[in-house]
């Protein structure tokens, strides 16, 4: 494989993309709970079912070409939780939405396989449907795995109802990226926030290590501490692009500029792991 010297390899594990448009699921399912998208001069607005604004997004949220122009990283694409995590909805409706979103991400990653890696979304409130869609994502759509929420409409991720799902994940040997969402239950968060974002398998780390104070992860000393505590093999760059949680101008900047060990050679080794090598292992991308 040839790499130009000045270009630094980077995989951004935590980025989001949505389709440019989608059906009005409120009409389709006859239940008013789904977001719609309305385009205007500067981008688009996501609108709640009651007509109020959910959030404004820019073109880089739905336009792959715009993302290629703005970023020099390989983006791991997943849906926006507000659109894709419909764990409280009837499971058949949630499945239809997941299929639509996954077909879209499947197309985008096929169009630029070196720049985009995909994570699907699944109706986790129904293990059987979730497993069917998980298998489709990995075996048919070429995704590295799925993104799921940090709980399933109140059920924790170790709930016995999810056992079949986790068994299938093991069989497929695919990645599961846990995205924080709906963090209103403070007690639950207190108990889980650290393990959820670090060590055990959900290396959704850099920018999302805390959802309450994003500044924390812009601090080189905290990054050094994380490397020390969790280990250099357990931390992966993730910026939340295109949302302004992280390093919007240059994902990876903190890792690139922090001295992560006493010896420069050690710092360089750790840096490469955090910027892309650990992601290659987590996502199983042998050709990267
Ligand atoms: Zn995110």
From TrEMBL:
One of its GO terms (molecular function) is metal ion binding. The keyword Lyase applies. InterPro entries: ACMSD (IPR032465), Amidohydro-rel (IPR006680), Metal_Hydrolase (IPR032466). It comes from the Eukaryota. Residues 92-180, 211-285 form the Amidohydrolase-related domain. Pfam families: Amidohydro_2. The keyword NADP does not apply. Pathway: Secondary metabolite metabolism; quinolate metabolism. Monomer. Belongs to the metallo-dependent hydrolases superfamily. ACMSD family. This is 2-amino-3-carboxymuconate-6-semialdehyde decarboxylase. It comes from Paramicrosporidium saccamoebae.
């Amino acid at each position: 494989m040839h790499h130009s010297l000045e270009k630094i390899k980077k995989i951004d594990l935590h980025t989001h993309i949505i389709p440019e448009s989608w059906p009005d699921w409120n009409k389709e399912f006859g239940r008013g709970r789904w977001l719609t998208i309305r385009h205007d001069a500067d981008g688009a607005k996501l609108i709640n079912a009651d007509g109020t604004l959910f959030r404004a997004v820019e073109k880089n949220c739905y336009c792959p070409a715009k993302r290629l122009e703005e970023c020099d990283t390989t983006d791991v694409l997943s849906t926006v939780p507000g659109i894709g995590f419909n764990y409280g909805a009837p499971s058949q409706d949630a499945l239809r939405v997941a299929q639509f979103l996954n077909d879209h991400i499947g197309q985008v990653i096929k169009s630029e396989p070196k720049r985009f890696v995909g994570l699907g979304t699944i109706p986790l409130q129904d293990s059987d449907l979730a497993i069917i869609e998980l298998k489709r994502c990995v075996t048919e759509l070429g995704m590295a795995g799925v993104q799921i929420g940090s709980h399933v409409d109140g059920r924790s991720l170790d709930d016995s109802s999810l056992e079949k799902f986790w068994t299938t994940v093991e069989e497929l040997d695919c990645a599961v990226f846990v995205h924080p969402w709906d963090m209103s239950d403070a007690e639950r968060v207190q108990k889980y926030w650290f393990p959820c974002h670090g060590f055990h398998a959900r290396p959704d780390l850099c920018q999302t290590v805390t959802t309450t104070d994003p500044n924390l992860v812009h601090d080189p000393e905290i990054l050094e501490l994380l490397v020390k505590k969790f280990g250099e093999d357990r931390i992966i760059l993730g910026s939340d692009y295109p949302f302004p949680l992280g390093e919007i101008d240059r994902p990876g900047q903190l890792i690139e500029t922090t001295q992560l060990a006493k010896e420069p050679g050690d710092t360089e080794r750790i840096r490469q792991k955090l910027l892309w090598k650990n992601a290659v292992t987590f996502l199983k991308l042998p050709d990267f």
